[in-house]
């Protein structure tokens, strides 16, 4: 389940080959749609094999999937599931090569970004053509809609995660604050940071200057049709000026702090808070066990956007599948509430299904930091959504916005002028 950054970049770079590769695929001899995939089911009694690909889940979860597959095959005696698991870095090339050869897998595990890129190229089926409203409604709306482009749903949400607020209770108490009544909004978090700074000399938290800061504060990065930049507004100016003020005051460390730096600052008790996913726990548990013991996790304070940004893994069905109907049925089975609940318990992940969150596993705590983070993260799933999905050249757009933020906040560039320049750069990227 490790999300390797290099593999993610390879995914985004590789997707530009999809149109060419799809065109190179030979059409099926019968029962095909315009994209070359079978739209019908198998004949009555016909034995079929569905090829199911996952990412980096063997051998840790081999027993879970063997049991899931066995249960499905018992209920569907004409279907055999051929499960293959690949490293994160390898799955993209294998998938693209498979599509080009005309021997596509039937059900594939991808992240939301790449699933949407595949969808925008017409390489995966639209689940809206297969699912009932009840089936679609089983998933959290924001997470399900993260892969909906122009009304077409290109993936089923699977396991996911959202950020929480980690607090050093020692520093919080030294500042005269009560960790049992944590901040609920970004404004309250800033006030806590000011008191931390005044009473302890420490900063509130470290921040990476990335594009997600805009939607967190209620600013749309692109227009509704994703054709042009939409962030050059007074609201964005106010958000940037506020962050710059917090950094000038020392409430937020004045630098572009990536995740590694944030771990260092929190481990060294240079900051009192960390805004991160549950993987952060593993790092501080190893690097700073005393800080780990003094840390609690609470729901992430919301900004004006009143949303939680999720980081989801999904399941797609390539259009080149020869058994689309059966593949969709298995994809729904893998991601239904019962199986998502079971997988979350085995893998300590969060589900994307509404019914799963009712399970005591997501509400009852043994007071460990891990349990606190899980519960706090689960509480934000109803507001969760991925962002910048289905956008061509999303990586370039995110980089352009990050550079603009750096120029303004770290280098003192004029806010209005830099926003206009960044807007022009993003519009140029979108026009390519």
TrEMBL record:
SUPFAM superfamilies, sorted: Periplasmic binding protein-like II (SSF53850)
Source domain of life: Bacteria
InterPro entries in alphabetical order: Bact_solute-bd_prot1, SBP
PANTHER family: ARABINOSE-BINDING PROTEIN-RELATED (PTHR43649), DIACETYLCHITOBIOSE BINDING PROTEIN DASA (PTHR43649:SF12)
Name of the protein: Sugar ABC transporter substrate-binding protein
Source organism phylogeny: Bacteria, Bacillati, Bacillota, Bacilli, Bacillales
């Amino acid at each position: 389940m490790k999300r390797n950054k290099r593999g993610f970049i390879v995914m985004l770079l590789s997707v530009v080959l999809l149109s060419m590769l799809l065109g190179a695929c030979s059409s099926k001899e019968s029962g095909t749609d315009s994209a070359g995939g079978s739209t019908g089911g198998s004949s009555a009694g016909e034995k079929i094999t569905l090829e199911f690909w996952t990412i980096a889940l063997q051998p840790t979860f081999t027993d879970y999937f063997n049991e899931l597959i066995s249960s499905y095959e018992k209920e569907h005696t004409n279907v055999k599931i051929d499960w293959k698991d690949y490293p994160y870095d390898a799955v993209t090339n294998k998938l693209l090569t498979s599509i080009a050869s005309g021997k596509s897998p039937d059900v594939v595990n991808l992240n939301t970004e790449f699933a949407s890129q595949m969808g925008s190229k017409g390489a995966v089926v639209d689940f809206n053509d297969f699912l009932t409203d009840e089936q679609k409604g089983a998933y959290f709306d924001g997470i399900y809609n993260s892969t909906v482009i122009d009304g077409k749903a290109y993936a089923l949400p699977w396991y996911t995660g959202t950020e929480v607020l980690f607090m050093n209770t020692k520093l919080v108490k030294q500042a005269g604050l009560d960790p049992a009544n944590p901040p609920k909004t970004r404004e309250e978090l800033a006030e806590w940071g000011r008191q931390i700074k005044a009473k302890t000399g420490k900063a509130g938290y470290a921040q990476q200057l990335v594009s997600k800061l805009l939607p967190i504060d209620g600013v749309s990065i692109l227009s509704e049709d994703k054709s042009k930049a939409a962030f050059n507004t007074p609201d964005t100016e106010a958000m940037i000026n506020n962050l710059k003020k917090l950094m000038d005051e020392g409430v937020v460390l004045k630098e572009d702090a990536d995740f590694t730096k944030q771990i260092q600052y929190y481990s060294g008790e240079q900051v009192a808070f960390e805004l991160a996913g549950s993987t952060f726990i593993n790092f501080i548990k190893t690097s700073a066990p005393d800080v780990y013991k003094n840390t609690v996790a609470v729901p992430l304070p919301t900004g004006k956007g009143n949303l939680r940004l999720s980081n989801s893994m999904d399941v797609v069905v390539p259009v080149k599948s020869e058994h689309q109907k059966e593949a969709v049925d298995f994809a729904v089975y893998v991601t239904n509430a019962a199986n998502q609940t079971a997988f979350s318990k085995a893998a300590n992940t969060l589900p994307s299904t509404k019914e799963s969150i009712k399970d005591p596993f997501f509400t009852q705590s043994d007071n460990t930091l891990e349990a606190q983070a899980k519960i706090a993260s689960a509480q934000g799933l109803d507001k969760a959504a991925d962002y910048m999905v289905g956008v061509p050249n999303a990586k370039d757009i995110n980089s352009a916005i990050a550079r603009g933020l750096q120029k303004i906040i770290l280098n003192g560039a004029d806010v209005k002028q830099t926003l206009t320049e960044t807007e022009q750069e993003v519009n140029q990227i979108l026009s390519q």
